[in-house]
Design a protein that fits this description.
Chain lengths: 201, 201
């Protein structure tokens, strides 16, 4: 009796699991806008029927939720890593910046989608609420670092947190993965500008 | 014969000139997305007919062009101010950063719209081309400052330019004008982080 491996490989259209479906959906949402993309558009892009999509996921909204939660879970995991780490807050802040750059590089389409969410639906508002929570955690770290005497005087912690993540989040606008490029180099550049500034003193 | 000024003020719906029409259009484009806003939507919002809009402007595309050009003209005017100024490039770079913050604060809805342009139409592609030109001018300033020995070693000028404008552009995401708040304070914060970093040495 022949083993399964001797059977010829089926050369038909490949099936999609939830993961590959999500990847294509996120790419399409980023290209055309979430609101501008229908399940019909997605089905056409995938070359499958709408009901084949609904087999995996109940709604377009749920695809968005899965996508933005992946980005947010990545960012919160970075914060969780330093929660119980002893030492100075400024070093924990650096860890969060570096980790966030890594998440952005590794989950670029997911974070790009997250940053475009404007709060039009329940899923979008939940994502914005988690973003605000993340911003508060970063602001608290800056405050703590300031109270430990490691931050220059006269800088408002909430503004600092926003400017630092202004830099980090801008990666979604201009960073394109290349062979040999490394998120460590990128994180180094972000941290040098953020912590030491560009001016040679 | 009574003078014109004694005539009672007409209390009907106010008319729109091109400027006030543009302001409302930009607000609506930012709320709903440019692609998601029709001239019909705009007419409804303004409480006038579509033909009353077409009296001022031939197309939605032309409204977008006027809006993004206002933002871009503001940014290029800042660069033009320093073109023939003697002195060190790092000081000219600081002038460009401060001036750009002022343009963002003063033309917030226009710059917000500009930063969301993705290049789907001729007008959008022209705007992206001008943005790239602006980025090149900033990168050249960073290069020059580096060659004058004023920038820390090991920072890639194009990356520096992008990170600095990542900070500046993030203002469109979080800055909301308040009474008594000042774009000078904001520019101070951006410049302190950009040039000196947040870490107290």
């Amino acid at each position: 009796m022949p083993t399964m491996t001797t059977k010829p490989v089926r050369r038909g259209r490949p099936g999609y699991d939830l993961e590959s479906l999500l990847q294509v959906a996120v790419k399409l949402f980023n290209e055309r806008g979430y609101d501008g993309t229908s399940m019909e558009d997605l089905a056409r892009k995938l070359g499958i029927t709408k009901s084949a999509i609904y087999y995996h996921v109940p709604s377009k909204d749920e695809l968005l939720r899965l996508a933005v939660d992946r980005a947010l879970d990545g960012l919160f995991a970075v914060v969780a890593e330093i929660e119980d780490v002893p030492g100075r807050a400024i070093d924990r802040l650096e860890h969060v910046l570096r980790g966030s750059v890594a998440v952005l590089v590794e989950q670029l389409p997911f974070v790009t989608l997250l940053l475009r969410v404007r709060g039009n639906t329940k899923v979008e508002r939940a994502a914005l609420a988690r973003r605000r929570e993340f911003d508060h955690l970063v602001t608290d770290l800056v405050k703590q670092a300031e109270s430990e005497g490691d931050v220059r005087e006269g800088l408002e912690p909430a503004t600092v947190a926003r400017l630092l993540f202004g830099m980090v989040n801008s990666l979604t606008e201009w960073y394109r993965p290349r062979k040999g490029s490394d998120h460590v180099d990128l994180a180094d550049a972000v941290c040098r500008v953020a912590f030491d500034g560009i001016r040679k003193s």
